[in-house]
């Protein structure tokens, strides 16, 4: 199995995608806070977690994921996973493979690629294939195709008849459409001719909202599910890249600009659930960190640095950065490959009495290297205190 890709872009190879707004933005006072480090000494990751569990995804010829996961969605006790094999796979709550949704092709019910997907509350599935939506029932049976007049890269289902669409190469970036593909609303007028989508564009924020980050800045667009209204907010402050500074960064050759502001941070990935937001942050001065924001009080509750110890999977302390590929309401989900865990066990043998360590050690006993490398990745569900 191919080695996992590096999701977070390094400072040297960073490609910044800015989203600038011509329309006048009215910023709300919603959850404005500072992004400051909390911990001064190394800590164990498990001390930050209220709970966590492992789900081993079944490995069969039909369920192979490949080198990396594109998106993880959990709903109605099922895991929906898109991967670089360009298929949408479904697993049950224990990780057993159930089926594939649709297939690659040009025929009825087939897609050329999966730009994004989402799942309705009733279990039905929508797959976005650039300029069309393919709808399937909860069993994976094809229902119909909905042509779109705009190019889309990401979607978020609001309800049975309303969908948010993150677009590229269009006049606007965010469109609100109905189930027939008709445009209801549009936000954020684009200045650039081409936009690239994210793995997850619409991030869960609390119990009734989603947020969309503007570029890699501290500017966000909020969408309220209760009244279907948009608002803008500077969610984070304190030396975090703003949308206007990001435009300057692009014009002034990225790295040189960042070196001028060594304390400037940028947000290179966001994940959310009902209670917390996870921010993957980078800077030229402090390097990489993961900040965990409590949605209720608007404060950073945990900070994870390279010096912390991952006593959950024994891999990098930033193993949870892949949660930026998950879309789940009640928890975060990340994934790790078994050869990385095995290498971590060798590096951290001081945890040999740790129950997780013993569990993994038993799992890999009498397994050859090929068996370990070819297994589908392990999902890790976790909830912060």
Report on this model:
The radius of gyration is 21 Å and the shape is globular. The N terminus is likely disordered. It has a single domain, classed as 6 Propeller (Neuraminidase). The chain starts with 26 loop residues before the first strand and ends with a strand. The protein has a five-stranded mixed β-sheet, with no helix packed on it. Strands 7-6-5-4-27 form a five-stranded mixed β-sheet, with no helix packed on it. It contains five helices and 29 strands. With 385 residues, it is mainly β. It is 11% helix and 39% strand.
**What structural class results from the helix and strand content?**
mainly beta
Large-scale geometry? globular
Radius of gyration: 21 Å
Number of domains: 1
Low-confidence stretches: 1-25
Number of helices: 5
Strand content: 35-45%
Number of strands: 29
Would you state the CATH class? Answer: Mainly Beta
**Which homologous superfamily in CATH is the superfamily?**
TolB, C-terminal domain
Oligomer: single chain
The major sheet is characterized as: 5 strands, mixed
Mean pLDDT: 85
């Amino acid at each position: 199995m191919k080695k996992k890709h590096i999701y977070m872009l390094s400072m040297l190879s960073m490609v910044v995608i800015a989203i600038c707004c011509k329309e006048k933005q009215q910023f709300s006072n919603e959850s404005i806070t500072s992004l400051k480090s909390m911990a001064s000494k190394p800590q164990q990751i498990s001390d930050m977690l209220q709970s966590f569990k492992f789900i081993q995804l079944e490995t069969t010829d039909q369920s192979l994921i490949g080198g990396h996961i594109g998106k993880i969605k959990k709903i109605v006790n099922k895991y929906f996973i898109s991967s670089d094999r360009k298929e949408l796979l479904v697993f049950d709550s224990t990780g057993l493979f159930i089926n594939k949704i649709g297939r690659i092709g040009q025929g009825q019910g087939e897609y050329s690629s999966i730009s994004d997907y989402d799942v309705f509350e009733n279990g039905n599935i929508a797959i976005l294939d650039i300029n069309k939506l393919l709808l399937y029932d909860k069993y994976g049976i094809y229902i119909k195709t909905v042509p779109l007049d705009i190019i889309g890269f990401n979607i978020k289902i609001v309800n049975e008849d309303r969908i948010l669409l993150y677009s590229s190469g269009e006049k606007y970036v965010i469109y609100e459409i109905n189930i027939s593909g008709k445009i209801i609303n549009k936000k954020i007028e684009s200045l650039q001719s081409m936009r690239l989508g994210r793995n997850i564009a619409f991030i869960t924020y609390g119990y009734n909202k989603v947020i969309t980050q503007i570029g890699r800045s501290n500017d966000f667009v909020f969408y309220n599910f209760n009244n279907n209204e948009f608002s803008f907010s500077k969610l984070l402050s304190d030396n975090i890249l703003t949308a206007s500074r990001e435009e300057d960064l692009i014009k002034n050759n990225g790295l040189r600009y960042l070196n001028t502001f060594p304390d400037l941070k940028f947000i290179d990935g966001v994940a959310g659930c009902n209670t917390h937001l996870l921010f993957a942050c980078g800077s030229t001065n402090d390097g990489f960190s993961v900040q965990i924001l409590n949605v209720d009080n608007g404060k950073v509750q945990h900070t994870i640095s390279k010096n912390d110890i991952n006593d959950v999977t024994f891999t990098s302390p930033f193993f949870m950065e892949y949660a930026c590929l998950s879309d789940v309401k009640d928890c975060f989900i990340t994934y790790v490959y078994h050869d990385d865990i095995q290498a971590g066990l060798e590096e951290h043998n001081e945890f040999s009495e740790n129950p997780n360590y013993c569990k993994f050690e038993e799992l890999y006993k009498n397994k050859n290297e090929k068996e370990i490398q070819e297994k589908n990745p392990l999902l890790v569900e976790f909830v912060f205190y």
